[in-house]
Each structure stands twice: as C-alpha cells, then as structure tokens.
Design the sequence.
C-alpha cells in the first residue's frame, strides 16, 4: 500500500526544484535590473581581474544575464521547455561557479551555486513533471488530457 502511494508521488518530486530555481532566478534578475550599471561594472571588474573574459564580452554578459535569469526563471517556474531551460540554467550556474570560485568568499562553505547546479541537472534529467506546461503540451499532442492521465493512475 505504501509503495503504491509513493509511486504516485514520484512524478511530482521535481516540482519543488522548479519552484525554487524559478523564483531564485526571477528575483536575481529583478535585483540586477534595479541598478544594471552597478552589476555590469561588477561583472567587468571580476572578469578582467581574474582574466576570465575580455572587457567587451564581460560587458555583454553583464547586460544579458539579468534578462536571461528572468526568462529562464519564468520558463522553469511554469515548466516550459524544461529540458532546454534547465540545460541553459546549468551552464549559467557553471559560469557563476567559475567566476566566483568553489568556496564562498570569507569561509570554508562551498559555493551555494553548487546546490542550484544540482537542481538544474536533476530537472534536465528528470523533466518537468505532470504539473507543467510541458506535460500539458505533451498530453495535447497525444490527444489526452490531465484528467485522462489521473484516471489511468487511479486504475493502476
């Protein structure tokens, strides 16, 4: 009895990851857009001091990142094109880790972006789950509705 109940919940396991990542990215993008020049200058300083990017690319990255965070955050939150959006978010978090280092500044705590990286990779491998636009589009393509799928799960 318990295992059957757990099996019904497994498809929903990645929903919290989508919500956390989506909200985190949206808030990060909005925060950066409050003072875009301050953020662009910070990216330029960090990128040039560590010789990560030429100044022109660092400037472009600084301007583009807040918009990318907003778009990817929204896509992850609603579960739209989750494979692509989680892959792009994975690449984004890898760039954050490279730029800021493996450890948090001023302590022996690993960079928090590793946790976000793990969540994006889990979404990339596991998909959006049933409460997503991806699931809705997939069911429409098959000519089925969420109600049909719920009835099938209850019959099992």
Sequence:
């Amino acid at each position: 009895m318990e295992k059957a109940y757990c099996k019904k919940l497994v498809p929903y396991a990645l929903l919290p990851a989508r919500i956390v990542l989506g909200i985190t990215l949206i808030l990060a993008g909005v925060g950066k857009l409050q003072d875009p020049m301050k953020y662009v200058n910070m990216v330029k300083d960090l990128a040039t001091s560590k010789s990560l990017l030429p100044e022109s690319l660092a400037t472009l990255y600084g301007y583009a990142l807040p918009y990318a965070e907003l778009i990817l955050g929204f896509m992850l939150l609603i579960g739209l094109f989750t494979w692509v959006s989680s892959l792009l978010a994975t690449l984004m978090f890898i760039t954050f880790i490279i730029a800021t280092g493996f450890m948090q500044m001023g302590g022996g705590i690993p960079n928090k972006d590793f946790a976000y990286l793990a969540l994006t990779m889990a979404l990339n491998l596991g998909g959006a789950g049933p409460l997503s636009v991806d699931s809705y589009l997939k069911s429409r393509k098959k000519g089925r509705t969420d109600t049909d799928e719920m009835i099938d799960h209850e019959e099992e």
Summary: Helices lie at 2-9, 15-34, 36-49, 55-78, 82-100, 113-126, 133-142, 146-155. Residues 150-156 have pLDDT under 50 and may be disordered. The chain has one domain: 2-155.
